[in-house]
Amino acid sequence: MMNILGKGLALTHVALSLVLMTVALAMYFNAVDFGWKQPARYYRDITGKTQKADNLLIPSLYDKREAAMRQLVRVREEQQFKLGTERDKFAKLGTALGDNHIQGLAVLDKLENGVGNFDIFRVKIDDRGELVQNPPEIGFVAFSESPVPAINTSYAGYQTKLKDVDNRIVAVQQSTGDLLKKNETVTTRLNGDKGVRPCWYDLLETEHKTQVELQKEIDYIQPLWVNERVNSELVVSRRASLLERLNELGDKGYLTQSEFLQKLK
Questions:
Q1: Which of 111, 213, 245, 261 maximizes the CB count within 10 A of its CB?
Q2: pLDDT of residue 115
Q3: Distance CA 91, CA 87 (A)
Q4: Any idea what DSSP says for residue 59?
Q5: Is the pLDDT of residue 263 over 80?
Q6: End-to-end Cα, the chain, rounded Å
């Protein structure tokens, strides 16, 4: 039992020795440079030969940390300077943006509630499709030189005109409704009132039938009238010849032709 314990302790000692030796070798070959009295040097190989005259000092860990700290302080100071500059720019930008906001509200209020007619301009766009500002970047938007054609009233003005047009449309619709009612009355008179009273079409049809019958009567009477007229002209001509004959015989107890015709009338 004691033999086994002694051998085990010996093996453990050997193993720990190997581990500690490995750690020592690692620390030796990968030592942390905390600072030497003479800093380590690095010789650069320029032409394939090591030249000791041309070398660089290798900074220690403390040197690296000090350099990093100084760089951090320098960066902080630079950033503080930039921050102060940006604050000044921000103050100027805030003033410019406030002025732009006031001008924009004035333009929008005029476009929405302006009174009367006034020119309206478009915002100016550059070749890249961006708004043109005057001055650039922080100024108010620039407007075109020529106004928008055919648009010279605010939104409220156009709303008022639209209401006027709507009122006129309502008036026209009312007058159109009255005309439709009159048209309905006339249509009722034309087509009749469900057989209660004759319509104008019935009267026209009756008048047409009457005209047709009248034309038939005229066509029937006209030959008779022509015949009677021919007979009357024949009687007149015979009477004229008879009067001439009586005149030749010396008879004066008769009416002249003019007196005869006047008597016939």
A1: 111
A2: 83
A3: 6
A4: P
A5: no
A6: 186
Nearest-5° Cα angle at 113, 159 to 102:
150
Alpha-carbon distance 55 to 43, whole Å?
4
Task: State the Cα angle at 225 between 224 and 231, rounded to 5°.
Answer: 90
pLDDT for 75 = 92
Distances (CA, A) of 203 to 197, 199, 261: 11, 6, 43
- The continuous run of DSSP H or E covering 133 comes out as strand 133-134
pLDDT tens-digit profile of 65-96? 888 999 999 999 999 898 888 888 777 777 77
Give dist(CA 247, CA 242) in Å, integer: 8
CA-wise closest residue to 261 among 233, 224, 225: 233
Dihedral through CA 18, CA 22, CA 23, CA 29, nearest 10?
160
How far is Cα 160 from Cα 157, in angstroms, rounded to an integer?
Answer: 5
Query: With b meaning 16 or more CB within 10 Å and e meaning fewer, what string describes 102-124?
Result: eeeeebeeeeeebeeeeebeeee
- Tokens 């309206």 correspond to what residue? 120
Q: What is the mean pLDDT of residues 253-264?
A: 62
Q: Which two tokens stand for residue 95?
A: 């003033």
Q: What is the 3-state secondary structure (H, E, C) of 12-50?
A: HHHHHHHHHHHHHHHHHHCCCCCCCCCCCEEEEECCCCE
Token output for 165:
């047009």
